[in-house]
Write a structure and sequence with these properties.
There is one protein chain. The chain is α/β, with parallel strands linked by helices and 385 residues long. The strands form three sheets. It has a seven-stranded mixed beta sheet with strand order 2-8-7-6-5-3-4, with helices on both faces. Helix 2 runs antiparallel to helix 8, helix 3 runs parallel beside helix 8 and helix 6 packs parallel to helix 7. It is globular and about 65 Å long. The chain starts with 14 loop residues before the first helix and ends with a helix. Bound molecules: pyridoxal-5'-phosphate.
């Protein structure tokens, strides 16, 4: 990357977001890919490395006992964010690992329906079919948001094993009306499962889903190698769990979904990241991310050869662009990184196979995005072939 494109550190940020920026190792690139991975703070990286250090010094068993207060506080923090009891939260290795544990533990029968919207994340659809389930479409409005009247009518007609919604879509600016969906599902006793992988650390998640799962490394800016799931107490008794190792009787069925062989360093980092997120203020973060999303969409509007998807006011910091002049999205993404030091994401159709007609370029800045970052991207896209 030539010196002329180096990022102005922190740019025109308000103090609180400059502080957030300064809590992280200095950025060598313009990171516009939080929907893939967020930048961890020094406190999070310290919690991770201190746990690894303790394991090397005192051995895994003793270090794991010492980590319990931090992990239990993290579990309680996550329970607050997800609207469940602390005993209803389990740590996992990732978002996908969380879904896979849930699908294994929930009593499901081959051929049962799982109701989804057309924008559903591709690998989730694959996980459902691999489990023998039949994904069926729920009606949506023109923008891809769930049609709540249609959901009510669908649930009155047939009873799927569960309704599954990806709260914040990964591939474009789209947020589902999960609070209202939770109310409608609860009224008829159909469980609502939420993929909050792009939602936790981004928008509010405490609306009382029956099942909700997420990852550490994206908007929460925790480490890789950690995820989580939560199940509301009403469904604990139906879970089919097999205890691994010795567990006291009092352990909840959800906690039994945790695998013993795991990176405690990643969990410790996740717990530190969650605490920092709560200290910053989830409401403040989501307002800022909504603002960052709309600044991004305005900054990238009207570039020749590019079209911004979903320009309406949606509270997501994820923006997708279509190439309207036949550009190769993967090549543009690679050029932005190599030539301008700007990190974006090239999205293939498999990300949302029921909806995406073509590859898209994704831009997903975090709260410390400044107007200079967006100006650099705009200038780069104008210059890209
Ligand atoms: C909507 C959605 N669900 C699930 C996942 C999987 O999360 P993980 O990579 O932690 O398994 C992702 C990751 O990109 C995602 O965007």
């Amino acid at each position: 990357v030539s010196d002329q494109y180096l990022k102005p550190a922190g740019g025109d940020l308000p103090d609180i977001w400059r502080y957030w920026h300064d809590q992280r190792p200095p950025a060598e690139l313009v990171h516009l890919n939080s929907a893939s991975v967020g930048r961890s703070s020094m406190a999070t990286l310290r919690a991770f490395s201190e746990q690894a250090d303790r394991e090397a010094a005192a051995g895994f068993r003793s270090a794991s006992v010492q980590a319990q207060p931090l992990l239990e506080r993290g579990r309680a923090d996550l329970a607050t964010l997800l609207g469940v009891q602390p005993a209803g939260v389990a740590f996992t290795q990732s978002g996908r690992a969380a879904l896979s544990s849930l699908l294994a533990a929930w009593p499901l029968h081959a051929g049962e329906a799982v109701a989804v919207v057309p924008s559903e994340w591709g690998p989730n659809l694959t996980a459902f079919t691999n489990r023998g389930l039949r994904p069926v479409r729920l009606p949506v409005h023109g923008d891809g948001r769930l049609d709540l009247t249609g959901l009510e009518a669908a649930l009155a007609q047939t009873r799927p094993a569960f309704v599954h919604l990806t709260q914040v879509a990964s591939h474009r600016c789209l947020v589902q009306p999960v609070t209202e969906a939770a109310r409608l599902c609860r009224a008829v006793g159909v469980p609502l499962w939420i993929d909050a992988t792009q939602a936790l650390g981004h928008v509010s998640t405490g609306y009382g889903a029956d099942v909700i799962y997420a990852t550490s490394r994206k908007w929460l800016t925790g480490p890789r190698g950690a995820g989580l799931l939560a199940v509301s107490a009403a469904w604990w008794d139906i879970l089919r769990v097999r205890p691994v190792g010795k567990h006291p009787e009092s352990v909840s069925p959800v906690a039994l979904l945790e695998r013993p062989e795991t990176s405690l360093a990643a969990r410790a980092g996740l717990c530190a990241a969650v605490r920092e997120y709560l200290d910053t203020g989830p409401e403040r973060v989501s307002q800022r991310l909504a603002e960052v999303g709309s600044l991004t969409r305005s900054a990238l509007a009207g570039i020749p050869g590019w079209a911004v998807l979903d320009t309406a006011k949606v509270s997501s910091a994820i923006t997708a662009l279509r190439a309207t002049a036949g550009q190769d999205i993967a090549a543009v993404k690679a050029w932005l990184l190599a030539d301008r030091g700007i990190v974006t994401t090239a999205e293939g159709r498999s990300r949302a196979p029921w909806e995406m007609a073509e590859p898209l370029l994704r831009v997903s800045p975090h709260v410390d995005c400044c107007t200079q970052d967006l100006a650099l991207l705009r200038e780069a896209l104008i210059a890209a072939d």
